[in-house]
Automatic annotation (TrEMBL):
Protein name per UniProt: Chemotaxis phosphatase CheX-like domain-containing protein
Keywords, sorted A to Z: Chemotaxis
One GO-annotated biological process of the protein: chemotaxis
Pfam families, A to Z: CheX
Domain of life: Bacteria
Annotated Chemotaxis phosphatase CheX-like domain residues: 48-125
């Protein structure tokens, strides 16, 4: 995946995508997702990703804690704050967020090819050492969300 983040004149296009996705899909208003100052340690991590398969292939990976993912699902699905999130709703919601972020990232890639269906698991998908090309640590309402981009073989 060939994205030159520095080519965007000081603006981080992945941060802009995250802000737009969270505003439109989750919060309904801007200002609830911000860059985090440091990389978080995720307890009970959950991961959702899509792959961009084309001339150069890459992965857009969204990682967060299970409780945060449940809250994202509640917000996305218009559920009550204490409403139980089913496994199906959880997978659908977190996968949809990864899919929309991935689709927007795909638009930044020259000759991007196809976007795969989202995958959601507790285990982080395998990646090769040195294949990470970008990481964005976010604070969503005081909770950690990480978006990373990876080159695939």
């Amino acid at each position: 995946m060939d994205i030159d983040i520095q080519a965007f004149a000081g603006a981080d296009p992945i941060l802009a995508i995250a802000e737009e996705v969270f505003t439109a899909m989750i919060d309904g208003e801007p200002g609830h997702v911000l860059p985090a100052l440091s990389a978080p340690e995720l307890g009970d991590p959950m991961h959702a990703w899509v792959d961009v398969q084309g001339t150069t292939s890459g992965r857009v990976l969204l990682s967060t804690e299970r409780a945060t993912a449940d809250d994202l699902a509640r917000a996305l699905l218009g559920m009550e704050p204490d409403e139980e999130v089913s496994t199906e709703d959880f997978v659908d919601a977190l996968g949809e967020v990864a899919n929309v972020v991935g689709g927007n990232v795909k638009a930044l890639v020259p000759d991007p090819g196809v976007l795969t269906l989202p995958q959601v698991t507790q285990e982080r998908p395998p990646t090769q050492d040195g294949s990470q090309i970008y990481e964005l640590n976010l604070d969503w309402r005081g909770r950690a969300v990480v978006i990373s981009l990876w080159k695939l073989p």
